Amino acid sequence: MARFWDKIPGIAYGADYNPEQWPVEVHREDLELMRQAGVNALSVGIFSWAWLEPAEGNYNFSWLDDIMDNLATAGINVALATATAAPPAWLVRKHPEILPVTIDGTTLGPGSRRHYSPSSSVYRAYAAKMTRVLAERYKDHPALALWHVDNELGCHVSEFYGPEDTVAFRSWLERRYGSIEALNEAWGTAFWSQRYGSFAEILPPGNAPTTLNPTQQLDFARFSSWAFIDFYNMLAAVIREVTPLIPTTTNFMASSATKALDYFDWAKNVDVIANDHYLVAADTERHIELAFSADLTRGVSAGKPWMLMEHSTSAVNWQPRNMPKMPGEMLRNSLTHVARGADAVMFFQWRQSKAGSEKFHSSMVPHGGTNTRVWREVVELGSALTSLASIQGSRVESRAAIVFDYEAWWASELDSHPSTDVQYLDMLRAFHRSLFRRGITVDFVHPDAALENYDLVFVCTLYTVTDSAAANIAAAAQRGATVLISYFSGIVNENDAVRLGGYPGAFRELLGINIEEFHPLPEAGTVALDNGNAGSIWSEHVHLAGAEAKVSFTAYPLQGVPAITRNTAGAGSAWYLATFPDTATLEGLVDALLEESGIVAPTTAAAGVELSRRLHADGRSFLFAINHSDLDATVSAQGTELLSGAAFTGIVAAGAVAVIAES
Known about the structure:
The structure is a single chain. The chain is built from 17 helices and 29 strands. It is α/β, with parallel strands linked by helices and 663 residues long. The strands form six sheets. A nine-stranded parallel sheet has the order 5-4-3-2-1-9-8-7-6. It has a seven-stranded mixed sheet with strand order 12-11-13-14-21-20-19, sandwiched between helices. The chain starts with 11 loop residues before the first strand and ends with a strand. The mean pLDDT is 97.
């Protein structure tokens, strides 16, 4: 199947384009402005169903025909949407049963978007029909380069509790377990007289007198992610039947803020990984969170180039205080995504809406038109991306990995656990932040992913883990990697059943320890360590069973109990962290792990400069140096600086970016 980028000589650049919001004379202006900005790719028709089919069976494609023809003439490639992200009013009126039902039985009405259940048989039939009509009409159109299936699946509503959702959940469970007896065993229904006699007796986990069966909750999360995959695959099957050579995608929302869908599972189903990312304006470290999300997207894509399908030129409209991006921040944001594997930079949206919920969401063409800072930066970014054409297809290579698992995220944050302060991402982000500040790029990998190429592997809060994944992680240490495992990892199997015999269950032998009892800390509490520092959130009664203590607790009742341990494992080692370390302890631990694994942090950049490198298979190397500080910075590198076309001088100006084709 042809790659999207085969039609684009370099980095794809563009936005969601919603011409249905504007008259024809604006369309003509758009084409000239797109030429000025260097736009070469657009996602078209995402919310256009009501315009394409204003009444059932009454199609109007004339406006879209004109748009597609004009874009083809302008040399702009189109990711054509299935238009299914918002059902038209006539469909809701005729079939209100398509609407989402929440956990408390409330039916969510129209007037917004995403107002359908992916398990609704009626909606699936209508969506498939619209997709087929579009595919048949535009299958040979020269502008068509990619299919954009629906939009931001799982956004706003990710779990559904209507009658058809219940039936679909039961069917999914029957396929997963095969028999009601196997389900009863997996769910531990001997507890609280929850035993089921048939799948027909099972309901989605709803409101109940007290806490619900945790495995039922975990399986419903799995099902809910799968239900969207199944909906996507239903539409993609129609597309592939009609246009087998055109790839399909949908825009993920992989970030620190979204956990509803298992994107590692999703990645098996899409032809091109695409992601949407938006900064939290109030986050003073938003550039680090951006890098985290970009690295996660690259991990979901298994290292292959991916699309940044949406981000913002400046402010969004949905945060409490929607502050604009600072001068130069849009360029830094965009090139951070490119530095970390994106071969497309796109925005929501091309032209800022004059009406509707997102009228104050920034765009490439703002309300103020072309005499604005945003527009000038849009043109500057287009020029910058043109100069980076030679980077297309290169990859990021890392020697450090962080294991990431959506199922562990879901399971670790269920109720009835030792501490509500244990949040899945906290430890992952702490280690990622430390490596980011050192200029060390890290890959996010699934627990079952190949780990042969990594010298340092972080396993954080991997509460639920399969036997095969635990063996995979242990094998990495046996081969010579340094593996760090944090507290609340390996505790349960994939059914959320405790691994008996002592914590940390799946990793006891690898770590050479045995944990007798958890000692979570009180709110805002700390625990003293014998290195003169402290831990927070968590502590536990660790017994050595072959490992050595590196740092110990000093406070009652854990005086002398190990807090950080190291165990030799084959040619490598396995470290254990039994508390959330303060900054000094964490940085000291990272120092030790890097030294042992042989990973050397680059000494080429001043503080505040983000470094990342992309490489081609033929050995060509591109160093991105992104200066997030307000001071000029020195970077030790030699080669041609691609954005200027001149030899790199070693200086990256305050707030600027240098991309060096290294000599």
